[in-house]
Each structure stands twice: as structure tokens, then as C-alpha cells.
UniProtKB/TrEMBL annotation:
Protein name: Arrestin-like N-terminal domain-containing protein
Every Bul1 C-terminal domain range: 366-431
Region described as Disordered: spans on this chain: 1-23
Residue intervals of the Arrestin-like N-terminal domain: 60-158
Residues of the signal peptide: none
Annotated organism of origin: Lipomyces starkeyi NRRL Y-11557
């Protein structure tokens, strides 16, 4: 039975201003592949199989190609070759490759450093009986070599033995060869690509050297489909301070508080204002649905304070910050926006979009108001819908050795009256595929308990 090999490349530190990360390899996995030669019209065959990327007389065709693939999905198709001349060869090589490429400026020098990590290589071997005998591709004859790949759920431990989440397949990012109409907010310094390649090798002389008379490839999009290690913490676990992961990972804010003072120089304390926020559902990749942002304001005023001192809630605005991390040296920790202060080799590219801008001053029957809970305690609760930015494709959160993608919502509540003009906080946002998001639903009891 033919085998499907999986080679994981373990990146190493570069030591020059422009170099390529190299690695060792290992193999695992199993699949069935068949190949055959045929003399039918290659144009008819291409139209039956779907989109193709060709070079010369050779092309790689994926059958019924989908906009994107995720873990567990299968890809079938064929490498099709119609040589113009009789061509001697040694072997046909077919593989599915995943590659990360980054570049950055060398700290303190200013020269450019490049890195490349081929983290996935699944080969689809051709059986000896399927090759023509002798090993010559005849001019004008069309040869078809079929392939079948199944995207693995995890990479091998040899890909990264330091950070577990690096062994998940990362999402396609910034591939200029994909026919995407939407911007995935990626910089030129970070690229993740997947492609199926076909190469014809021919050994020269004693077989010690090989050259490639024919080669072709076609890109595919892969979207991460695993539950991220960074999840929302239930609001009742929040403390009166900034929350962060124990290993120094992505910072998340769920609660913040301010002391309200009045007077020209603010010497008179009148109470305390607390803001809590939570997004209980993830954004779904390429789904233009809204997710609820739950806001809870609590105001505790001193006994000598006046009821007129309660601040008026004017509006709430939310900005989505998109963070893309990149490095030329494998990351051994979970970065966050402040990591660049201690890691000069880490690059950070960010974009921001306003995803909510809601006014509470319009005279509507559904406008929320302060509710008196006790003599000194008032509460204000509201739900604000968040929508994904238009003309953007937010890929699911992921981390890999060289590249990472995270999202953060910056919530600002505008106030009027006594006390500060605004109160705000930041919370992480998750983006998932619809298959994963369907298993992350939040019960109505949890939403009501906020």
C-alpha cells in the first residue's frame, strides 16, 4: 500500500543578515494514491477536475476546489503532464506543502533578516507499476498522476517541542496567489502559504545530482480550525485588576474601576464606578453576523453624595485591534502587544477598525437607564452588537513558531456629569470557523447572569 509521508521541519535561529531557517525531518501518516497514464484531451480533463495552476506542459489540478480547507478535509486531484518533447525522468514527486516566511529588520543594524519554515510536507508517492516503461514521457501524450491528501489535526511534536499550540495548522495569511477579494490584514513581513506541487526529477550521471525538467503548483487556502488556548474567562472570575495568562500570554481586561471626584481640583470623592464587559460568542470566519457585547456599569456613591452626581452614560464605542506577530527566530512564549519592549526581534503589525458606535442619548423606549439597587448602589446594563469590519477577512486566532494572529476589543464608554469623561477596558476577541464556533455556544443562563 502506498504511503503518505508527513515531514515536519523544526526551525533554527539564523545567524546572518539574510538567511533561511533549516531543520531536520521525520515522517508519519498513511493514505492511498493511484496514478495512471492516458492520452485523452488535457483540456477536457482540466474542465472535469476544476481550477488549475500550470507551468509549461504540466499542471496541478484540485478536484472541486473549495474556497478554503480545514483539519480533516480531504483534497483530491491530479498532476497532469503533456510534454512537448520526449523526456527521460527518474521519478514524479507530488506533495502538499505548508510554508511560513517572515522578514524583519535586524535590531541595531538595520539590515534585513529573512526566515522560512516548511512546517508541513505531505508526499503522495507514485507506485513503480504506474510509471511508463522505459522511464520516458512521450511528446504529445498526456499523463495523469492522481493524489489524495487529508489535512492532519496536529503537526508532529518535532515541529515544535516548546509550545503546544504551535503544532496546530496555522491559517493561510497574505498569500498573493490566492484569489481573495477581502483583505486579511496581514503585512508583507508575514506570509503563510499552502500549495500542492508536482515535480519531475531526472538523475544525471551517477544519480548524485538531479534537475527538474517540469514543475507546477497550485495554491490552496487552509483556515485554522481548533479551539484556541486563549479563551474568555467567566466574568465572575475577574478581579479588580488587569487579568493575564500565567505564562505571560495575551493580556485580557474584563473589569476596571475609577474613583469619581468633583470640584475644580477634584478633591471631593463622591463614589466609585466599575465597568465590566464580556463577549460571550466568537466571530465566525467569513460570516457577517453580529455578536453581543455585554456591558455592566456599577456606581457606588458615598452617603453624603447627591443623586444628581450619578454620571450620565452618553455612548459606547468599540475598536477591533488586529495584531499580527512575526519573527525570524522561533517564538518560545505567548507574545502580547507589550512584548516588543523586551524582545527586539519580535515584529508587530496592527490595524484597527470601529466595529460599534452606539449612542444612549436618543429618546427611545428601549434606552437603558440607571437602576437603583440600594441606597448607595446603582447599576446600568446594556447589550451592544459588534459586527466584523467590511471588506476584511478575519482569519481565526492562531500561533505558530514564526507568526501569530490575535484580536482585541477596546471598549470606551463616554460619560457626562461628575467624574471622568470616559471609562474603558480591553478584552480578547476570538475568531473561529463555523464548525468550531457551533460547539462554543453560551447558555442563556450565563448571559442572564452577567
Amino acid at each position: 500500500m502506498p504511503s503518505l509521508s508527513l515531514r515536519q521541519l523544526h526551525p533554527m535561529r539564523t545567524d546572518s543578515s539574510a538567511s533561511t531557517i533549516s531543520s531536520g525531518s521525520s515522517a508519519a501518516g498513511l493514505s492511498i494514491v493511484s496514478s495512471s497514464s492516458l492520452s485523452s484531451s488535457p483540456g477536457a480533463l482540466l474542465s472535469r477536475l476544476g481550477r488549475s495552476s500550470s507551468l509549461g506542459g504540466m499542471s496541478v489540478v484540485v478536484e472541486n476546489q473549495k474556497p478554503y480547507y480545514t483539519v480533516g478535509d480531504s483534497l483530491s486531484g491530479a498532476v497532469i503532464l503533456t510534454p512537448k518533447n520526449n523526456t527521460e525522468f527518474t521519478e514524479m514527486f507530488i506533495a502538499l506543502e505548508g510554508t511560513a516566511k517572515t522578514w524583519n529588520e535586524s535590531p541595531g543594524v538595520g539590515s534585513r533578516v529573512d526566515a522560512k519554515d516548511t512546517f508541513l510536507e505531505m508526499s503522495s508517492p507514485v507506485q513503480e507499476d504506474d510509471y511508463p516503461s522505459p522511464r520516458i514521457f512521450r511528446a504529445g501524450v498526456t499523463y495523469k498522476f492522481s493524489f489524495l491528501f487529508v489535512l492532519p489535526e496536529h503537526l508532529l511534536e518535532s515541529q515544535c517541542d516548546r509550545v503546544v499550540c504551535h503544532r496546530h495548522l496555522p491559517s493561510t495569511l497574505g498569500d498573493p496567489n490566492m484569489p481573495f477579494e477581502l483583505d486579511d490584514c496581514s503585512p508583507d513581513m508575514a506570509r503563510i502559504t499552502y500549495r500542492i506541487i508536482g515535480k519531475v526529477f531526472h538523475a544525471k550521471d551517477n544519480g548524485s545530482r538531479k534537475y527538474v525538467p517540469y514543475t507546477a503548483s497550485t495554491p490552496i487556502a487552509v483556515i485554522a480550525a481548533y479551539t484556541p488556548d486563549i479563551r474568555n474567562i467567566p466574568h465572575n472570575h475577574c478581579k479588580d485588576q488587569e487579568l493575564s495568562l500565567a505564562d505571560g500570554g495575551f493580556t485580557r481586561f474584563y473589569r476596571t474601576a475609577k474613583t469619581l471626584k468633583k470640584g475644580i481640583i477634584g478633591r471631593s470623592t463622591i463614589g466609585n464606578l466599575t465597568l465590566e464587559a464580556s463577549v460571550l460568542k466568537p466571530f465566525v470566519y467569513l460570516k457577517n453576523q453580529s455578536v453581543p457585547l455585554l456591558l455592566a456599569l456599577s456606581y457606588f456613591h458615598l452617603a453624603n453624595a447627591k443623586k444628581s452626581d450619578i454620571p450620565k452614560v452618553e455612548s459606547v464605542s468599540v475598536k477591533l485591534r488586529v495584531y499580527t506577530y512575526f519573527t525570524t527566530v522561533p517564538i518560545t512564549y505567548m507574545p502580547h502587544p507589550k512584548s516588543r519592549a523586551v524582545d527586539p526581534q519580535l515584529g508587530l503589525y496592527q490595524e484597527s477598525f470601529t466595529i460599534a458606535n452606539y449612542s444612549f442619548t436618543a429618546p427611545t423606549s428601549s434606552r437603558p437607564e440607571w437602576a437603583q439597587e440600594s441606597d448607595t448602589h446603582y447599576s446600568f446594563n446594556a447589550t451592544v452588537p459588534l459586527t466584523q469590519p467590511k471588506q476584511r477577512a478575519l482569519v481565526p486566532n492562531f500561533w505558530s513558531c514564526l507568526i501569530g494572529r490575535q484580536y482585541e476589543a477596546e471598549v470606551t464608554v463616554k460619560l457626562s456629569g461628575a467624574g471622568p469623561g470616559t471609562i474603558g477596558l480591553k478584552i480578547p476577541i476570538e475568531v473561529m470557523t463555523d464548525k468550531i464556533a457551533a460547539n462554543m455556544t453560551v447558555s442563556e443562563d450565563k448571559m442572564m447572569a452577567f
